[in-house]
Amino acid sequence: MATSRPVFHPPNDLAAPAEPGSPVMVAPLLPKSSPRRRSLSSRSREGRTSWDAFSVENLERSGSRPVASSPSKRASQREISDDEARLVYISDPDRTNQPLRFVDNSIRTAKYSVLTFLPRNLFEQFHRVAYVYFLILVGLNQIPQLGVFTPAASVLPLALVLGVTAVKDAYEDWRRHLSDRTENTRTAHVLAAGGEFWPKRWKDILVGEVVKVAADETLPCDMVVLATSDPTGVAYVQTINLDGESNLKTRYAKQETQSTPPEAMSGLIRCEKPNRNIYGFLGGVDVPGSKRVSLGPANIILRGSELKNTSWVVGVAVYTGQETKVMLNSSGAPSKRSRLEAHMNREVILLAVALITLCSIITILAGVWLTNHRDELDDLPYYRKEDFSGPEADTYDYYGVGLETLISFLKSVIIFQVMIPIALYISMELVRLGQAFLMMQDKNMFDEGSKTSFQCRALNINEDLGQIKYVFSDKTGTLTENKMEFLCASVGGVDYSGGEEEAHSISVAGKTLRPKMTVKTDPELMNVMMGGKGIEKAKQARDFFLALATCNTIVPILVDTAEPSLKVIDYQGESPDEQALVYAAAAYGFTLVERTSGHIVVHVLGESQRYDVFGLHEFDSDRKRMSVVIGCPDKTVKLFAKGADNSMFGVIQKGRDLDVVRATQTDLLAYSSLGLRTLVVGMRELSKSEFKEWQSAFENANAAALIGRGKLLRALASNVERNVHILGASGIEDKLQQGVPEAIESMRQAGIKVWVLTGDKQETAVSIGFSCKLLTNDMTQIVINSSSRESCKKSLQDAVSLSSKLAAASPGPENILTGTGPSSGVPLALVIDGTSLVHVLEKELEDELFKVATVCDVVLCCRVAPLQKAGIVALIKNRTDDMTLAIGDGANDVSMIQMADVGIGISGREGRQAVMASDFAMGQFRFLVPLLLVHGHWNYQRMAYMILYNFYRNAVLVFILFWYVLYTAYSLTTAISDWNTQLYSIVYTALPTIVVGILDKDLSRKTLLKYPQLYKAGQRDERYNLRLFILTMMDSIWQSIAVFYIPCIAYGRSDVDGSGLGDLWILAVVLLVNLHLAMDVFRWNWITHASLWGCIIATVVCVIILDSIRMLPGYWAIFNMMGTGLFWVCLLGIIVSALVPRFTTKVLTEYSIPSDVQIARELEKIQNLSTATTSAILMNTFSQS
Questions:
Q1: C-alpha distances in Å from residue 1139, one per residue of 403, 501, 1006, 1078
Q2: Which one of the listed residues 222, 243, 474, 1035 is annotated catalytic?
Q3: Are strands 293-295 and 625-631 parallel, antiparallel or unpaired?
Q4: Would you identify the family this protein belongs to, as annotated (predicted)?
């Protein structure tokens, strides 16, 4: 059971928080995702000085200027006017909701209602143009003159497809309705008129009402904290439902409201209007009898958060229902379209052209025939104008040659409509669903550490996983574990990197406190800190670790153990870097044990000391550092700061300790070369006048309402963080994830280029690149570090020239600069930083970068911002046809993930923003190998074959109908019954192709992992291309000729009618296409057998049933046909003659010009891969393009 000390009262507005995901280059304290921490600031209420106030204007006159804001500045950083603010009257919901009523607290994630389901669902489904096409055909068939099929038979296929999709959508929405109902009927305690809290359903809570939440309860709305059970106004919350982070976060009530009983609370809150930014909040509260108090992110708790380690909290609802931040952010994964489906449109257009061609041929011939026989139409079959069936002659409807010709065209469109297979679309959805299920059940992609399985968030791009050419990866948390370990420190210009892990504990009030994690300590540094190298060095070392213990937002939580006298200190924070630094300080004797609203307690070398916290300037992406103003026990006031090296060295005191600065810079370079995350720590002692000036300006800046507060606080931070004395630097290791080097090597062999886009400094990124085998010693590195557009242009031109020379001197195919593809000679690596990318990502220089980057085997981008990551992905995506994949774990990777063709989120330690924006999610980078090389390969070959098979299957039937029309005076009568025609695609032949599309495997997992080169088949579009489509159509024409003409010849002089031939044709074509599929199945199982042979049996049964119904045409025809031996001879002859050409071609192709996949399949057949001795030689024949 965890117990908590009072926690630091974090004033909200010291510095505007950085954009979620803005890059923190080399500051271990704040990783890329850490800018989402709350802004904190506070003044100690105890011992407050009486120095005179200093105006904010003096800050401007002192020379400080606001730092330029980022273009992607968060909503909470923008300055808003009072006119744009939301007014909330505490405990007065009626006045709050006047004159316009705010939304109630009910939520709705369901898409449909009972009334809107049918029209809205149909509207969404008919966004597919193919469905509109089939709807038009159904409508045409209802016209009596065009009624080729019976109305019911014509509607059946489209109705079935629409119905299946509608049922699926209805079920999903029903589950959403149940979830919404459960959520909306939960109860919370709301302050009633009598001053007591009464239960109230969540959906009935209104803006302005005061709500009380108990420990372990979930917040029903976004509410500003008014009071908590802690006397200092502190509350702990867990936001795992919002961003996936399990670390506790602190929220606090203002002292002006904390001291007021709930029933007496009143006042006016002015806050920003609802927005999606879950990490920012701007507002102010006017409390009667007090001045306006500013509110920030640390004063609001969002809906979905859980209250932890706090008995209760009271707050006022400011955003409810659909306007809460979690609901405003509840958007699904981006909608993307697979490349295979996009290419399929080309074939659909060709099929449409073929359809129009067939219809035009029939129309022209029908017109000619009608013209030539216009005088004989009274009693000729098919067009007979006179009806002699009654006692008196009657006249059929006949509209003349012109109109009859037009009707022939429209009828032919209806008859041949299955040329474009409607069942294909529903089959693709079902296959993707089955593939997604198998991927999610794959134990090889289950992460034991986080207990997370693979997730499919987008079901329409499974096959794209088999055609990836570029992988864009984040580094921290994606390639590395994002579990930070303090390894070394440079203090006073001296490197301390040795030591062993030792358990460190302290004694406080008769209790033994021990940090949860142990850190290696350097004995020499311990000796220095204890005075072994002199008082001055000891003081500097102590200040260094005091800075690590105080300059942070870590909350110490005391956790009980089995021993009553022993408690474990668990440092909770939103940044793994900060946790590592505080644990390191504790290991060296500076243990943070308590954090309250105005001070912290640090156990310093055996003695507990209290430090007043006057204010903390939070990190932002412009300053790239943070600082805290501390009141020390000796009555001095110090500013401790830490941040990126280039940021900290820019604010040091000029001319002081130059030797120490140079030595520290040398140590930083060494740490970076080892792949460590580096951080520089500094200190400045403030005089009374300096502190007085800062404190007054800080108070006035925080007193500002909603206008100008952010600028003033940023200017104040920049003004006070100057003339800093460098204390030292730290090195933190972010270990590589398991299997990363092997995964990158496998992808390289598979022809996949891996690019790393990181916010770390260049030396760190390059070192990690070597560690994970992304970079190798035989690579020629092209480094671009330029600060101006002109220098960038020259560097790129030099890079183009160098790469051209290396490519020309290397054997192998042409490179991208001169033609077709990358060079197979000297490997190249491009290293470029974010500053250069600012200038490079312009239209003129983008082309130069593209030429260089696509020639290189590896691209490493350092210190890049989130939008730059997206820009790099767009550079490749918009200029090539190659498929791109982006993978990351933090909020700063979202733009990159959404830009790529396939986006993958890592369920890591930086929250769930990346997962929520992704198409797929998994726990480890190494799972990319089975995902792409195994499932991606399988999904691509299955879907590619299924599409071509569906085109072939329907084309065979259409051509049979076409041949028949040629022998019936172009009258568009059909021998195959309407029901058999409609059931052909959705019953007779649909299930086997779906089963094969889900379960078939051309190669085993072991083979695909052993030979990554096999993945290139998908990159080369080997299984789906225009050539295969044309060959498939040629094969379908031949098979249709065999099916049609063999029975015609056999029964040419018999009295068998059209219905009998139609039954023979439908049975023959169903048997033929299913046997065609059986020839191409790679791995048989009982499900495949049952579906394939079961469909053939089902066809026979359906034909028999249809011919047993007296009211339908063709009554008893099948029984008459099957009773003769000629029927069975015809079936055999059709199958043999139709499949012999395909079988012969298949055999000759596989033995004379086998593909890589066919070679691998033969290897699987002839020997056990684990004992193969010649397989490596055979695989050298694989294509390298």
A1: 42, 73, 33, 11
A2: 474
A3: unpaired
A4: Belongs to the cation transport ATPase (P-type) (TC 3.A.3) family. Type IV subfamily.
